[in-house]
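Running this now, will post back.
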Amino acid sequence: MVSDLCPVPIVQAPMAGGASCPALVAAVSEAGGLGFLAAGYKTADGMYQEIKQTRGLTGRPFGVNLFLPQPDTADPAAVSVYADQLAGEAAWYATELGDPERGLDDAFDAKLALLLDDPVPVVSFTFGCPGREILDALAGVGTYTVVTVTTPEEAQAAQWAGADAVCVQGIEAGGHQGTHRDDPEAEGSGIGLLSLVTQVRETIRLPLIAAGGLMRGSQIAAALAAGADLAQLGTAFLVCPESGANVLHKQALTNPLFVRTELTRAFTGRPARGLVNRFVREHGPYAPAAYPQVHHLTGGLRKAAARTGDAQGMALWAGQGHRMARELPAGQLVEVLEAEYRAAAAELGSRGAA
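Update: finished.
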């Protein structure tokens, strides 16, 4: 069972871009939760070095998240038009736009080969569902597999493919929506977490990990009451001192200057929830459905904005509950969340008994 991996029903979400570093992952796992490294955007060797570092910090289970290779569905003309629009940003930050054709597979095969050769306890997948042969191969080396899903239909596909569990991601979640297919016509049709967990629970028999906007133990209790086995939190761990997130990103989460989040394609070409800043307002409405081409295109801009201390040009990924972030050490945060969850679960139980 997925609950056997961690005595506390809390999973630290894999957050690509540096936040999910070995120090954070190890601290969460040591506290009884399940920490996750994010292999997305890293080289295969970069992923492996982080695995080795994490093993040096904890002997408890942890996971690694992989991005599935993406189909080449982007319109090159639309990407070119967007690049022209971003020319002013490149001039402002005195940097160059990236090459949108750097690749679509995120070195998936090389990363998978390493994980089969030197297994980790858990591997999860985002942006699709791997084939049964991949899931069976990982099972053969003792790895527990999790597929991110955003609809009951995606959950059913994951069960058919042979996944051990699914991570049910509600529309409230920060960062990318892990849809199996990026359909612009379905944009904005995402399902809220509690409704989605209930729908998925009634559709499949696999264990569920609930993700999306969770910041308090009482919310964890609600997600588990709806049918989840574990709760996954990302934004809640972003502000921890162990997190590798940029300090500007950490500060922005509770800065009253940033009043809301929205789903945007501005930085990557795929819907992702982040704090609304100048870049999102100016470029979000015009960004094409082109992932990872737009991600590659804006990479230099995002780095330059961070380097110059300009949060208005950074991708400030955040879930809807970002204002509730607490700047606590990761291990202490796990303890606080567990205490809140136990108290809320006990209260729910007493109300039911009454």
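The chain has 14 helices and eleven strands. More later if anyone needs it.
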